[in-house]
Design brief:
This is Helix-turn-helix transcriptional regulator. By secondary structure, the protein is mainly alpha-helical. Helices cover 71% and strands 0% of the residues. The radius of gyration is 16 Å and the shape is elongated.
Length: 143
Amino acid sequence: MANEEATRRIRLGQLVRQARHQAGETIDGVAARAKMSPVTWRNVEAGVRVKSFSLGKVEKALGWQPGAIEDYLATGEEPGGPGRSEELIDWVLGLDRPDSLKVIIIRALRQGGDPIDAVLHGTASSAEKVAAIETLREGGARR
């Protein structure tokens, strides 16, 4: 059992590193965005045990569902999944919405973390932000 957990932590580190690389982020950059130390982020990528609240910060920074890492450690079902954000982007592209709205949503999805926060902190108008958030919520209800 302990060996299985260690193996999953090592695999988790690989998944976190892969997601960070796909986002084009450095450890220092993603750790700052996650409001955690780079040392803690490196520990996660190295498969070292860290506190649960740190794992929650990693999930948020990578745009993974809350609790996905703990679920992975317990069940072996990989968090995030490389296709999740691409699946959402495909969904957005298929919507009957203005292209300008699609661009706002796709940018938010690509930033990682909570896409609603990304929309709120973006430069779009208030009306565009409301429309993007409504669309994201609609998408969340379908997923």
